[in-house]
Amino acid sequence: MKKTRAPHRSKSPRAVQELSRLAAGLAASGSRIEDAFWENLLAATIHGQLRTGDDQNLETALDQLYETDPAGYGEFIHAIEAAIECSVLTHKDRNYDVLMFAAPVLTWSRFSIPSGPIPEPMLASLRAHLQAQVLATDIQFSLADYLFSPDQLPRGYHLTHELAKKLWVASAENRDLHMNPRQLAETGRFLSDTRYLLGAIAVPRGKPMFQWQESIGTSQVGKVPETKTQKQEILLAWQTPGSEVLRPLFQGCALELLLPDGFFSAWRMADRLARPYSMHATIDFLQSTLNIPASGLRAVIAPFFDQWLEEYRISFTFKDRDDVLYGIVWALVGEEDETNDTVAQIETTLRECGVTHVTLLDNRFPLEYCEECGAPLFPNPEGEVVHAEFPEEGKTSSMHLH
Ligand SMILES: [Zn+2]
Questions:
Q1: For a FRET experiment, which of 5, 29, 154, 311 has its CA 20 to 30 Å from that of 297?
Q2: pLDDT digits over 188-221, tens only?
Q3: Residue range 84-90: average pLDDT?
Q4: Is residue 280 one of the residues assigned to a domain?
């Protein structure tokens, strides 16, 4: 996707060069103590950029590092994300570690998926369950009273940081944050999508924020408690009551709550898991609407490139026909690139869903969209990109079928 740039400001080559130099220095560092040296300088420089209210220098430095220094690029991304989502906050003469967090929800529906204000009693129940099931004892935290769609998350670095700062202050006061719905974007309608609860945690410096950071009393000497298992248990403990509380908003929707975590980490996890989730949703939807088994469908997988590989697009046709009925995008997430075996993941997910007829195209397709409605175009089995056309009789009036 093309980055939107603010046209009225010119970028500063010196700032870009300094950011790249610090990130490259950090990546090449030979010790923890040297890491700290570079990290402090880099963090201060990134904060300076966030204060300008313009992401352009950060983005230009990222682009530069992506091409010249992959390790520096990775360090730089981490440093930007850290500067945006966490900090030390001094509030009323007390110092807190603060972190913006997200609790993602995967969902799908043939009808519409909700977003918008969360009623007060529901917010209070969500708070109680987050505190009981996920967050460490003795923390203070805030929740935004809004269920965000991906279109409504702040766009870009400094806007995300602006929201984080509001949530941090609210968390130090242990109160929720009111969002003005009129300031948030319209939500696109999709069969399957993600929703986010956003909040922030404030703890005295160095204290745990999540339950998996707390020591568990039952662990025996010699037995290492596994954070991964603990996280899984915490997720399961959150999913059931969390879903019950949200259910009244999600009429006619399937939903799956993911583990609340630091904003960027939770966001990437949601992007990753949304791909197989959306594939399952699509195949369920096609089977029930077209009244055919998954074995009656064929999937066509093709890679789509901008400058680099950006995503795979997967089309669905009847097994013995070439018309594309429906398509989904499987975007690369985080540090994934051409070297990951994404196709194998896609094929495995298709098989889990019962689709065994799969055509894999290996041409490099350009990222093309419908000029009228902006929907992505999808590959047909002949290797052409076309508009997905769902059969009329299967359409429900409220569905956006692009
Ligand atoms: Zn169109």
A1: 311
A2: 888 999 999 999 999 999 999 999 999 765 555 5
A3: 97
A4: no
CA of 318 from ligand 1 middle (Å) equals: 21
Q: Residue 100 forms beta bridges with which residues? A: 200
Asked if 133 and 240 touch (Cβ cutoff 8 Å), the reply is: no
- Which pTM does this prediction carry? 0.90
| b/e 160-187 (16+ beta carbons within 10 angstroms → b) | bbebbbbbbbbbbeeebbebeeeebeeb
For residue range 113-167, list pLDDT tens digits in order.
999 999 999 999 999 999 999 999 989 999 999 999 999 999 999 999 999 999 9
Are residue 232 and residue 375 in the same domain, yes or no? no
Distance from residue 64's CA to the centre of ligand 1 (Å): 35
Q: Is the domain of 218 the same as that of 126?
A: yes
User: Is the domain of 262 the same as that of 339?
Assistant: no
Tally the domains of the chain: 3
Centroid of ligand 1 to alpha carbon of 281 (angstroms) = 22
371 alpha carbon – ligand 1 mean position (Å): 7
> Can you give the pLDDT at residue 377?
96
Q: Is the pLDDT of residue 254 over 90?
A: yes
Domain encompassing residue 342: 292-394
**Residue ending a domain, choose from 52, 84, 116:** 84
Residue 125 lies in a domain: yes
Residue 373 lies in a domain: yes
> How far, in Å, is the centroid of ligand 1 from the Cα of 78?
37
**Residue 2 within a domain:** no
* Separation of CA 104 and ligand 1 centre (Å): 29
> How many A from CA of 372 to the centre of ligand 1?
5
Cα 230 to averaged position of ligand 1 atoms, centre (Å): 46
Token digits for 181? 């719905």
* Angle at CA of residue 193, ends 98 and 312, nearest 5°: 105
Ligand 1 centre to CA of 346 (Å) is 25
387 CA → ligand 1 middle, Å: 7
Q: Output the average pLDDT for the chain.
A: 91
Query: Quick one: tokens of 400?
Result: 């956006």
Which amino acid is it at 334? G
